[in-house]
Amino acid sequence: MTAVDFIDLASDTKTRPTAAMRAAMAAADVGDERAHEDPSVNRLLARCAALLGKEAAVFLPSGTMANEIALAVHCRPGDAVLCDATSHLIGFEGGGPAALAGVMIEPIGGRRGIFDAQALRAAIRADAPYAPRQRLVVVEQTSNLGGGAVWPRATLDDVAAVAHAAGLATHMDGARLLNACVASGVAAADHARGYDSVWIDFSKGLGAPGGAVLAGSRAFCDEAFRIKLRWGGAMRQSGIIAAACEYALDHHVERLAEDHAHARRFAESVAGVPGIAIAPGDVETNLVYFDVDAVAGGAAAFVAALQARGVRMVAMGPARVRAVTHLDVDAGAIERAGALVRAFCEEKRQNTL
Ligand SMILES: *Cc1c(COP(=O)(O)O)cnc(C)c1O
């Protein structure tokens, strides 16, 4: 198996910058970003603020920093943040909410990473000195552990309305917001309308080597920039990276539809295979989650065996496996990945007969 044949479905972060993206980076106009003098960064920020329907934006090295800074701007130590129990900021940010903003998380049990206004209302309590002050509601569009599920516009609006009526701020983790836009046909600014802050990631399906843009009001962004600087996230000639992000906005957004079609195709091609439980109808974007039974070896053994055969996926629990489609995986690779999974499960079943 050559490196070229290996099919990496571990994450949409596995993309490598294309030759054209690298050329755009090499040609970028740059300046000192920390002094707001980088023309490429400034252009990207203006464009993202407009895209997200916000007054201003801040360039950041990563989405994790965008979430953590947003918590620190909206909250004070000891405050509580309400979000779905599956949220990225609970499970995958190194304890940042506690370590950096000093907040408590109050998880809400949603369905596929999505909770509704009623669940939020039930979680909101009257202010009392013995309880943490509830300050912020966070939604994740699309929901990662929810299987790439897209929050419906109406749910986003209702949740934001309940939050604001209770005096809480709202934040959208938009790591895959543009996947949601392409899948739903709803513009990014419309998804983000009720949210005081929102960010998009360039290192996921958009295929850039790094970068995230956090947007909100001018006052929010001024404070976010102060914290970015304090935490060492202010950069210098980062127009090199911003150029990759801008290239991605120009060339890699519409094509997310291909990733979604590939994800659905992969899910359909392994549905009904002995040992695998999957609902292809749940695949709305580029994330595919399925369960592997004991005959197929459970998630860890399944993932190890398939990796040896040339397709990498990730075990997300004892039975749960995640496969992610992206820019570097074409239709042929998806067919081959499906065939490898089917062949493996068929062999396992034969061996147990
Ligand atoms: C990847 C991801 C993040 C963090 O983004 P990085 O750019 O990898 O730091 C945050 N939230 C969600 C939902 C993600 O999938």
TrEMBL record:
A GO molecular-function descriptor: L-allo-threonine aldolase activity
Coiled-coil portions: none
Enzyme class, first EC level, given as a word: lyase
SUPFAM superfamilies: PLP-dependent transferases
Statement: the UniProt record of this protein carries the keyword Iron: no
Biological processes annotated in GO: glycine biosynthetic process; L-threonine catabolic process
One GO CC term on file: cytosol
Entry keyword annotation includes tRNA processing: no
Quaternary structure and partners: Homotetramer.
Similarity comment: family membership: Belongs to the threonine aldolase family.
Listed name of the protein: Threonine aldolase
UniProt organism field: Dokdonella fugitiva
